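Researcher: Good morning. I'm working through a list of sequences from a screen, and I'd like to move beyond sequence-only analysis. For each chain I'm collecting a predicted structure so we can compare shapes side by side. This is the next one on the list. No need for commentary yet; just the structure.
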Amino acid sequence: MSVFLSAAIAVTLGLYGLASLLLLVRVLRGPTAQDRVLALDLIYGVGMLSALVVGIRYASHVYFEAALLIALLGFVSSCAMAKFLLRGEVIE
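Model: Good morning. Structure tokens for this chain:
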């Protein structure tokens, strides 16, 4: 792996970590429930992207499969939370 790619991966993971911390603050202190749900959804996205970058770093397919699972669970949980916020219940 080239030095440039290694440095880019390190910077990217650092920025993803910073984004996760800022989103965690928004989840804990968000003024409304919608802000908290959006921040949680973005945390799923950042986690998926982090798994993809780590998969590129270690050249392993396991991380790509984990990223796919994170994306799937993030989508389902976002739909469930949106339905809960709109109707007050998830299962009718």
